[in-house]
Specification:
heterodimer; A: alpha+beta; four-stranded antiparallel beta sheet; 4 strands; disordered N terminus; B: mainly alpha; Formate dehydrogenase/DMSO reductase fold; 17 helices; about 0% strand; globular
Chain lengths: ~180, ~450
């Protein structure tokens, strides 16, 4: 795969490191060198890695909150509309708007929508499901990324990217291996 | 904690030393890709055979209606609600382990949360059988239970605890499945890369959604996991609270008590931990998981069982106290009748199983030797079922007027349905350990030094 040199067919250059310490150091170095379109791949969450790459995405929490608010309003509206407006019925002399009783279904819909928004937004923002991704073209990645591998990939869309120069830069970080990633 | 501060990697003491990313992946995926032990086939066969009993019982129920069960006036609620509450309660330990212990940063949850969450999902599935089929005509249950615009323009009554239950349990089932699945995604990716047969690769690949372990993905993933844990925590407490409202909101002596919500929640966690231990002790021995599920794990789970067991026992004492102190003749009669009436042997068996036997767990020796602990857990499983039987049946069988007193005797169909759900549970659990990683691989990896960049201050 190393000889696939057509500039358009290149997703990026990928370096493999032997542990999390080296990978975080390499990520910091690449970021300091000015690379911004880069990603690191590990089989377990490594604290500080995303931050080293300049990512700090806290939007999932916003979606959780929004989902919760919608669930709360929707749940209460459902109870209120069905019991007060559409089919008012006197049950045991309780007020039509029995908000204390309604609070329980409302609570449950709040949790439900917040949870669905959390999981859904995480997947959508991560672009999952994604059946194909160029990084899987690297054989070592396919074999070890989900178990023992630590990878850093600088992507061709980065303005500073230049196949030869980027490769030389990564080599300076003493990786275990370097692979070009075909798109 | 002192030994916590000494650790280079938080939680490392909950993993046998010397493990790294590779060894953990090999060991856990090896259970699935390797040869299936003969005992698995035996266990699955037993579970699957018992499941057939459920299918027969349900088929006959649909032909004849709920008259085949032992319920009648005055005991209109019988096995269906007993078993429903029992199963739902068992599920609670899974959520406690996966959500509440995550918020408290209890690292020992890491190697048991996957199996416990699976237990939750399957227990909720078993529980769901009862409310659905006790309607007798489940194809009509949709408009009885769910608020959807139907041709009769009817809506469920949102002031009824039974509809609260529908919302609580269906939300609980949905959120548990979502949480479980989200937790599985990175491990499914590992399975995709490890599976040998092309069909398995495709199936794991499909469910792994193309997960590739990107740092940015992990960041959002961890944030989503934490949010889900935060949402599941109040949810799990609400579910058994709402289940207890089915009883507490009524005016039946023995049910109408303010202690019910906390007492039910504690009972649920108690029953659930006993069931987690019942499942994990044989699983650990069968698959040689002693490196991951260590003595500390077993000891901790036994401690939680003891603590919640004491809360439950306090609940029993308070029920008796309330009955006496209420100065209400119906309450007093109810508690006396419970202790000395026709169901007294059930009550005392319950006190023995849930109040006396778990006291053995004060001894560290019992907590860490698997056979005695397993026996205690079996007693708790039985005891918690008896508790629901006592609460449901003894409260109903002596109505306010002696003229409407009666007895409840379960029929063969009551037993078949109940035992059948145990078959359903075992079948699902055996399939789970056969096709999915029974221990969270990626979370165990975080307990190794590999996952921690040195010289970086991490936050646990």
């Amino acid at each position: 795969m190393a000889d696939a040199q057509q500039a358009t067919g290149l997703h990026g250059v990928m370096a493999e490191f032997s542990d999390a310490t080296e990978l975080v150091a390499a990520a910091k170095a690449a970021y300091a060198d000015g690379y911004r379109q880069l990603d690191a791949y590990t089989a377990a969450p490594v604290h500080g890695l995303a931050e080293a790459l300049g990512h700090d995405d806290r939007r999932v929490q916003t979606f959780t909150f929004t989902g919760g608010v919608l669930g709360f309003l929707g749940g209460f509206a459902l109870c209120y509309w069905t019991s007060v407006i559409d089919y008012p019925m006197n049950i045991g002399g309780r007020p039509l708007n029995s908000w204390v009783a309604f609070s329980i279904p409302t609570f449950e819909t709040t949790i439900l929508l917040a949870a669905l928004a959390t999981a859904g937004s995480m997947l959508v923002m991560n672009g999952l499901p994604m059946p194909y991704h160029p990084v899987f073209n690297v054989e070592a990645f396919r074999r070890t990324a989900s178990s023992t591998g630590f990878f850093l990939c600088i992507e061709a869309i980065d303005p500073r990217f230049e196949a030869a120069r980027t490769r030389a830069f990564l080599e300076g970080l003493h990786p275990r291996a370097i692979n070009e990633v075909n798109a | 904690m002192l030994d916590h501060a000494k650790e280079a990697v938080p939680g490392a003491r909950y993993l046998a030393p010397g493990h790294n990313f590779g060894s953990i992946s090999d060991k856990i995926t090896g259970i699935i890709t390797g040869r299936t032990p003969f005992s698995w086939f035996i266990g699955f066969l037993i579970g699957f055979s018992v499941l057939q009993l459920l299918l027969v019982a349900i088929t006959y129920l649909l032909f004849k209606g709920t008259g085949i069960w032992g319920v009648n006036n005055p005991v209109g609620w019988g096995f269906a609600i007993i078993n429903f509450v029992w199963w739902i309660g068992i599920g609670h330990a899974g959520t406690l382990i996966s959500a509440i212990l995550m918020l408290f940063r209890q690292h020992w949850r890491t190697s048991i949360n996957r199996a416990a969450e699976a237990m939750t999902v399957f227990a909720v599935a078993c529980a769901a059988v009862f409310p659905i089929f006790h309607t007798g005509r489940p194809w009509l249950a949709a408009y009885w239970l769910m608020p959807y615009p139907n041709t009769m323009a009817l809506w469920p009554n949102f002031r009824s605890p039974l509809i609260w239950d529908v919302f609580a349990v269906s939300t609980y089932a949905t959120v548990s499945i979502v949480f479980w699945y989200v937790g599985l995604i990175p491990d499914l990716a590992t399975m995709r890369d490890r599976a040998r047969s092309p069909i398995a690769q495709r199936l794991y690949g499909m469910f792994a959604l193309g997960w590739r372990g990107s740092a940015l993905h992990w960041q959002r993933y961890e944030s989503a996991s934490l949010m889900l844990a935060g949402l599941s925590t109040p949810l799990v407490l609400s579910v058994h609270t709402v289940v207890s409202f089915d009883f507490a909101v009524s005016v039946i002596p023995g049910w109408h008590a303010t202690i019910f919500p906390p007492y039910f929640v504690a009972g649920a966690i108690y029953a659930g931990f006993a069931m987690v231990l019942t499942l994990l002790i044989p699983m650990r021995a069968l698959y040689g998981l002693h490196d991951f599920i260590t003595e500390r794990h077993i000891d901790n789970m036994a401690k939680v069982t003891l603590a919640t067991g004491l809360i439950v026992f306090y609940g029993y004492c308070m029920e008796a106290f309330f009955g006496w102190y209420s100065a209400n003749q119906f309450e007093q009669f109810m508690i006396t009748n419970r202790m000395t009436g026709p169901y007294a042997p059930v009550y005392w068996a319950l006190i023995f199983c849930n109040g006396v036997v778990p006291q053995l767990l004060w001894s560290r020796k019992v907590r860490t030797s698997v056979l005695p602990l397993f026996a205690v857990c079996m007693a708790v499983n039985v005891g918690m079922w008896l508790e629901r039987f006592v609460i449901v049946v003894t409260s109903l069988h002596r109505d306010y007027l002696p003229g409407s007193w009666g007895m409840f005797y379960p029929t063969v169909w009551d037993w078949s349905t109940f035992i059948g759900t145990i078959g359903l549970f075992l079948t699902l659990f055996y399939l789970f350990i056969r096709v999915l990683p029974m221990i969270s691989i990626f979370e165990l990896r975080t307990l190794t030094p590999d996952a921690h960049a040195k010289g970086d201050t991490h936050h646990g």
